[in-house]
Amino acid sequence: MQKSFPKEFLWGGAIAANQSEGAALEDGKKWSTADALPTGIFGNIVIPPPENYLKKEAVDFYHHYKEDIKLFAEMGFKILRISISWPRIFPNGDDTEPNEAGLQFYDNVIDELAKYGIEAMITMSHYEMPLHLATEYGGWTNRKVIQFFEKYAETLFKRYSHKVKYWLTFNEINMTLHAPFNGAGIMADAEEVDKSVLYQAVHHQLVASASVTKIGHSINPNIQIGCMVAGGPMYPMTPNPSDMIEMMHKDRNTLFFADVHVRGKYPNYMFRYFAENDIQIEMTDSDKEILKNTVDFISFSYYMSYCATADEDLNIQSRGNIMSAVKNPYLEESEWGWQIDPQGIRYMLNLLYDRYQLPLFIVENGLGAVDDLIEKNGEFTVNDDYRISYLSAHLQQIYEAIEDGVEVLGYTSWGPIDIVSNSVCEMRKRYGFIYVDRHNDGLGSFKRYKKKSFDWYKEVIATDGKSLF
User: Residues 225-265: pLDDT tens digits?
Assistant: First the structure.
């Protein structure tokens, strides 16, 4: 029997506003927290943002969206995950009225997608909030920010929920623990933030996520609202029982966030953790009621797996997407030191589905690499066989998870077009099926070129994945 993915499987790609749009101060938008991280070093916050930096123009999706969406349609996309820039809608975050020009831009993008039969998936907060909320309110440490986010989300739901089915609240919400400014607008490195302050900010985000889930369902009961976590499964470094317990603790840095979103309450293990680490947070009875508004599905990013060990002598760190962990000696690494583990995505899918029995959506997965633009038969392209190999291996494992009985809604690769990378803030690290002529020095024509992987992914989608086998 020929292997294939379900006919209803949603194939596509994912981008973030602050890494793709540019137009940092255009049409009423003001600075975001992402603008204050131009160097890509999460503790190196620059306020006000410098005169020139890559995200200021990014790959100019703001002015090229029609061209880019046409290319996505040519590949056969069924869905595109985008994020909405909060400061494009509420420039300061605490404004009384939304910015109509910002709202109209996303109307235009969503309508352009619909023209080609492509669904939009919207992330409401993708590592970006109005910078004003960070500098004047302390970011998510301040309970007032919940109200600002509710107002922002309600504005989006009322404007777009009649034409957008899939919604995500916070991107990789668990990464607030590792990059608090990036994730929560807290102006310090993770090791500098008191844990009570850090987990209070996390609590405010969890309450806000549940609250806007309730708001969204009240406005349109037919929409699907999900949470989004950075999915990096942990393996024990050895069969030593101490390594198993360490793995359990490390896994809970991710699972805690999914537990609250799915089960509507804090898991018991967190109360022990709070007590043993003298962490005090304010959690009102009203908060507990709000948290009961649970999500319809779980989405996650997957780039690599990690190891855990209680043995300090074996604690050799491997850099990943924001966080680092112990290296796995059985895995190869990308140019950026990210370990490559296709089977880990099958394990992650089974782990989450066994735990929650909710539909899953893989909303980020891809390979960042240095791509060389070459001329071939009078046209420019990139021979990115390494990307094809990486993605093929991961998609084959997703198929295996579906065969295991896991309900997988879809897959949006990160990112289908080259964008400014988040973790290192440069163009040299490219993910796309489409090459954008822009470089680390800020130079380039912004022209788009199809890579070899463009036609490969087009065939994967056209054949429902049969071409993978």
Answer: 999 999 999 999 999 999 999 999 999 989 999 999 999 99
Q: What is the pLDDT of residue 317?
A: 58
pLDDT at 69: 98
Whether residue 364 lies in the annotated active site: yes
d(CA 205, CA 140): 7
Q: What is the pLDDT of residues 337-367, one digit of tens each?
A: 889 999 999 999 999 999 999 999 999 999 9
Q: Which of 262, 260, 157, 155 shows the shortest CA–CA distance to 218?
A: 157
pLDDT at 117 over 90: yes
The per-residue pLDDT of the chain, averaged, comes to 94
Q: With a cut of 70, say whether residue 80 has pLDDT above it.
A: yes
- The pLDDT value recorded for residue 323 is 56
39, 400 Cβ separation under 8 angstroms: no
What is the pTM for the complete model shown? 0.95
Question: Quick one: pLDDT at residue 313?
Answer: 75
- Confidence band of 37 (pLDDT split at 50, 70, 90): confident
Assigned token pair, 352: 């989450």
Rounded distance, CA 339 to CA 306, Å? Answer: 8
Give the domains, in start order, of the chain with CATH numbers.
10-468 (3.20.20.80)
Closest C-alpha among 172, 223, 85, 182 to residue 364: 172
Question: Which residue out of 21, 128, 172, 364 is catalytically annotated?
Answer: 364
Q: What is the 3-state secondary structure (H, E, C) of the chain?
A: CCCCCCCCCEEEEECCHHHHCCCCCHHHCCCEHHHHCCCCCCCCCCCCCCCCCHHHHCCCHHHHHHHHHHHHHHHCCCEEEEECCHHHHCCCCCCCCCCHHHHHHHHHHHHHHHHCCCEEEEEEECCCCEHHHHHHHCHHHCCHHHHHHHHHHHHHHHHHCCCCCEEEEECCHHHHHCCHHHHHCCCCCHHHCCHHHHHHHHHHHHHHHHHHHHHHHHHCCCCEEEEEEECCCEEECCCCHHHHHHHHHHHHHHHHHHHHHHHCCCCHHHHHHHHHCCCCCCCCHHHHHHCCCCCCEEEEECCCCEEECCCHHHCCEEECCCCEEECCCCCEECCCCCEECHHHHHHHHHHHHHHHCCCEEEEECCCCECCCCEEECCEEECCCHHHHHHHHHHHHHHHHHHHCCCCEEEEEEECCECCCCCCCCCCCCECCCEEECCCCCCCCCCCEEECHHHHHHHHHHHCCCHHHC
